[in-house]
Amino acid sequence: MRARVLVRPKTGILDPQGQAVERALPALGFDGVANVHVGRLIELDVDDPAQLPAMCERLLANPLIEDYEIVEAVQGHG
Amino acid sequence: MRFGVVRFPGSCDDVDALLAAGRVGDAVFLWHRDRDLQGVDAVLIPGGFSYGDYLRAGAIARFAPVMEEVTEFARAGGPVLGICNGFQVLCEAGLLPGALLPNTSLRFVFRQVRLQVADPDTPFTCACPSVLSIPVKHTTGRYHCPDPVRVVLRYAPGENPNGSQDDIAGVCNEAGNVLGLMPHPEHAVDPLSGSVDGLCMFESIRAHVGRHAAV
Amino acid sequence: MSAATQPSSEPRHRALGLTDAEYDLILAALGREPSGVELAMLSLMWSEHCAYKHSKKLLRRLPTDGPHVLVGPGENAGAVDVGGGLAVAFKVESHNHPSAVEPFQGAATGVGGILRDVFAVGARPIAVLDSLRFGEVAGSERSRYLLERAVAGIGHYGNSIGVPTVGGEIYFEPSYEQNCLINAMCVGLAPCDRLIRSAAAGEGNVLLLLGALTGRDGIGGASVLASAELGDGDEAKRPSVQIGDPFAEKKLLECCLELLDRALLVSLQDLGAAGLTSAASEMASKGGVGIDIDASGVPLREPGMEPFEIMVSESQERMLCVVEPERMADVLGVCEHWETLATPIGQITDTGLFRVLNAGELVAELPVGLLVDECPLYELAPAPPTSPLYPGAEPQLPAGAVASETLLALLRSANIASRRAVFEQYDPVVQSRTVRRPEQADAAVLALEGAGAIAVSIDGNGRRVACDPRAGAAEVVYECAANLACVGAEPLGMTNCLNFGNPEKPHVAWQLTEAVEGLRDACEALGVPVVGGNVSLYNESPDGPILPTPVVGMVGRLPEPSRAGRLGFVHAGDAIALVGRFCPSRAGSELAKLLGDAPAGRLPAKNAEAIGDAHDRVRSLVRSGALSSAHDIAEGGIVVALAECCLAGGVGARVHLPDGLDPFGEDLGTAFVVSGPPPALTGCQVIGRVGGDTLEIEGLLSVEVRDLADAHARGLDQLLAWDE
Fold first, then answer.
1. How many of the other CB atoms lie within 10 Å of CB of C36?
2. Cβ contact (<8 Å) for C434 and B9?
3. Distance between A59 CA and the closest CA of chain B, angstroms
4. In sequence order, which residues have a C-beta less than 8 Å from that of residue C226 and are 6 or more positions away?
5. How close does chain B come to A16, measured CA to CA in Å?
6. Residue B107 in contact with partner chain C when CB distance is under 8 A
7. Which residues of chain B make contact with C423, given a CB cutoff of 8 A?
8. What's the gap in Å between the CA of C152 and the closest CA on chain B?
9. For residue C610, which of A72, C105, C511, C714 sits 20 to 30 Å off, Cα-Cα?
10. Is A60 on the interface with B (CB under 8 A)?
11. C-alpha separations of C198 from B176, C270, C334, C541 in Å
12. Chain C interface, best mutation among B33, B34, B108, by max C CB count within 10 A
């Protein structure tokens, strides 16, 4: 099973990376952009998707400062 | 008095910590895979980029076998000092509250900063004056903690290099035996290179261990 | 051996950069057509970058002998004896072209590469310095981007691997707009008996590949040899930008140093340009042996790589070593401890042939000599330029500006303003040796355990070398040595990187030839040998060549680190003196640039003996501990030098310049401004006194130090629009 985990900064935590991207896009001519946040994507093949939340809690995300979302768990690989 | 300096793959300031501690007592390395703390009286977790800072700084190092022993040592009241990456490891390991986030500037910063000792009653600050000049060098040093925390060191007004809440440079646990700080006291011990204000932190640990030697 | 197919009808060898004449030489030597793998290997080994075919003869002009030299040019890095049983290895290398494509990774892998060159000779890297040149950031978004990303890349690699970045220089000129220069220098420390050479030896010994997996990094032009055309869906097969991994290199470094400490290796070589081909063939050539390599045994990052790709891949963080079979178990144990992959991929033979096999099939068989030694070397055909090569620019300063305005404009200018915003991104203290950090002194100073200290500086010049290549290049050497003198160090050896345009053009050939003569003049005058270096040619755009830019790195020794010199004035009441026979002129100066002048005009001849005397004088004054400060007079002339001393010390001065002395004229490497208690400076030409909060130069200007600081501190930041 191929899973994808999205990790993003918790709301309310200052996200200077997101802010930097939000400033840079209009400078390149892209308007109407707001609320940008920058996080991480982790992709993995797992035999037992039920273990994913525990993996996220223990290693893949830091629950104090990050939220995680298990986006996709589909049969097959890649 | 024997210091143990933990060494992960990617630790950089391990030798520096060993040299600094060696000015005050004996110092040995504790390899990440070893579970033997070699009877040390205090543990130092040094700066650097353990495991390349992959995933999050300190996220992988906290699971090293040696960290299980360090955790037990800390729970038993042993003094543990985490410097920079060491601070990050201690937060990830849950031995200290809070977390370290990327500097507001998003850039690595090296700077000599003035620190105010907010709490002189810890094993790490008991022999220190109230102001210390010590360098910082990090990309991920912005301290964040939503809960009340015991602050030990603060950046002097105007000298916060990373946007830490409340100008926090170092915190300890409730029991006061585990300290994490972003500045590098081991780089302020040699008169040849400038300030020696960091030495008092190692001397504090020695004094503390000396007082509790009967344990 | 399989034939390659290619989309165009251009002969393979031309697509790979070989001339018809070179190809004929190959045919004659082999007596047959080369296979695809052989052609790939030859085209890289015979490229300018690997073979130095336009510069090798010229480089033989440089003096390489000296009483302290342990390893001269030709090895991965040169090394000098610094006393106390210790050797210092060092080298500078360019990574110009990759950095123009991807500045963060280009600069990062440039640092990674030079680190490997140093630990390949058995020295622990203890310092990095870098010399960077870009187009004018005021008018160029691209140059701002390149600077920002290159600095971030250097910081990322150096900081992560735990090697301090202790010095460097950054310059801006229009001619670097299309061709930025990223020159990285590394200094390493070793006990003299741990230095190792790269010559392979011992028939039957094993060739062991250490470090990262091999991928398609940097294959570039050789991709014309791919057996299949690269279609739209073949993104994964396209040659990729080299990505550096400092964590992998840290483990590799510790692994190699432990292997050497335990004397487990016969020889060691790093993999850089042209990857396995270059590393293995050079090891074989130096040892007079042959090598068999099994390409299918190389651990790969990507599936389906062809033998030619494996042989020319420039994947980073890899080393090659030769191991006696009976030592293999111990070697593998060390590698396992440091989590470093170690794979036997071949063996040493006595055939004198470089053979590549792939799953048992022979795909390449070349005489080692053909790869390494028999590339034709070309004579340059130098001729001075017949018309100016470099234009002037818009004046930044009115011709009638008063001296105070001129000084502030110079301090604010991109080439002189404070570089604090840059070097604060580097860690200068890790490893606990640094005695002088950036902006504290004119050279970095690193203490050696119980054996005094070393000083290091890196210096280059383009503008003045463009005016007068021979005198300008000599001046670069003098300036570098002057920086060492300011901290009390005596030069032991030098490394150089020659950054020039297309040497097949007569005017560039002339610049190169004259510059090498100038380096030679100065090295001989000062008695400083060249122990290694690098050449980067073909730095040209349709607008023409870059300014001819020799960059020089020097290592020196000082016996007493506690007396290492400092840049800034210290005590009110100290006397200020001018040391050296100072003969400034305007040609190629920073002021001339601000006034819009093109770089032109011969530089006045230098008196080498007087220069040597001045360096000796300053060095002994610093070593005696009598001085408060010492600073060489460089860009911007004596007035800027005095301002810099005030700024570093946070104190003013009152000065009376010698009559008729051009306040902003330049004469690099010849003269110094020193300060100290008046008795320490008897016999020197005293020109003033430290004190107050103003820099006052009688009859010329009076500016508050606070205003100097404002211009100097914010000059670069304002241009780069970097906020805190």
1. 24
2. no
3. 7
4. C4, C237, C306, C309
5. 6
6. yes
7. 110
8. 8
9. C511
10. yes
11. 54, 9, 20, 37
12. B108
DSSP at A60 = I
**For B99, which of A16, A40, A62 is closest by C-beta distance?**
A62
Active site residues of B: 84, 184, 186
Beta bridge partners of C532: C495
Nearest partner of C255 among C317, C168, C188, judged by Cα? C317
SS (H, E, C) C665-711: CECCCCCEEEEECHHHHCCCEEEEEECCCEEEECCCEEEEHHHHHHH
Pick A14's closest partner by Cβ from B56, B59, B104.
Answer: B104
How many residues are present in chain B?
215
| Residues of A with Cβ-Cβ distance to B63 under 8 angstroms | 59
Distances (CA, A) of A63 to A52, A56, A67, B98, C516: 14, 8, 6, 11, 61
Q: Which of C95, C156, C507, C615 is catalytic?
A: C95
Whether the per-residue pLDDT at B200 is higher than 50: the answer is: yes
Secondary structure class of C347 (helix, strand, coil): strand
The residue whose two tokens read 């002097």 is: B156
Q: Is C95 among the catalytic positions?
A: yes
Q: Measure the CA–CA gap between C345 and B115, rounded to whole angstroms.
A: 54
Judged by average pLDDT, the poorest of B144-153, C2-11, C384-393 is C2-11
Q: Do C432 and B110 touch (CB under 8 A)?
A: no
CA distance C552 to C539: 18
User: Which chain B residues are closer than 8 Å to C562 by Cβ?
Assistant: 192
For the stretch C402-438, pLDDT in tens is: 999 999 999 999 999 999 999 999 999 999 999 999 9
User: Is there a contact between B52 and C246 if contact means CB atoms under 8 Å apart?
Assistant: yes
Rounded to the nearest angstrom, the minimum Cα separation between B186 and chain C is 9
Whether C161 and B19 lie within 8 Å, measured CB to CB: no
Please report the beta strands in C222-297, taking only residues with DSSP state E, as ranges in sequence order: 267-270, 290-294
Q: Where are the beta strands (DSSP E) in C519-676?
A: 530-536, 540-541, 544-545, 549-558, 575-579, 629-632, 653-655, 672-676
Distance of CA C268 to the CA centre of its chain: 22
Who's near C243: CB < 8 A, 6+ residues apart? C105, C109, C217, C316
Residue C296 DSSP class? G
Chain C touching partners, 3 or more CB pairs below 8 A: B
Q: Which of B88, B120, B50 is nearest to A62 (CA)?
A: B88
- Asked if A16 is an interface residue toward chain B (Cβ–Cβ < 8 A), one would say yes
Residue closest to C147 by CA, chosen among C394, C415, C389:
C415
Please report how many Cα atoms fall inside a 13 Å half-sphere around the Cα of residue C567, on the Cβ side: 26
Alpha-carbon distances, residue C346 vs A78, C204, C212, C335 (angstroms): 35, 9, 17, 18
Domains of chain B from N-terminus onward: 2-211 (3.40.50.880)
Q: Which domains does chain A have, with CATH numbers?
A: 2-74 (3.30.1280.10)
**Pairwise CB contact (< 8 Å): C425 & B109:** yes
Could you give all domains of chain C from N- to C-terminal order, each with its CATH number? Answer: 64-193+385-720 (3.30.1330.10), 204-226+238-349 (3.90.650.10)
When CB atoms are compared, the residue of B10, B105, B110 closest to C724 is B105
pLDDT tens per residue, range C97-139: 889 889 999 999 999 999 999 999 999 999 999 999 999 998 8
Residues of B whose CB is below 8 A from A65: 99, 101, 144
Report DSSP state, residue C526.
Answer: H
pTM: 0.95
CA pseudo-torsion sign C250, C254, C260, C263: negative
Sheet of C453-460: strands edge to edge? C434-436, C444-447, C453-460, C549-558, C490-499, C530-536
Q: Which residue has the tokens 């840049």?
A: C567
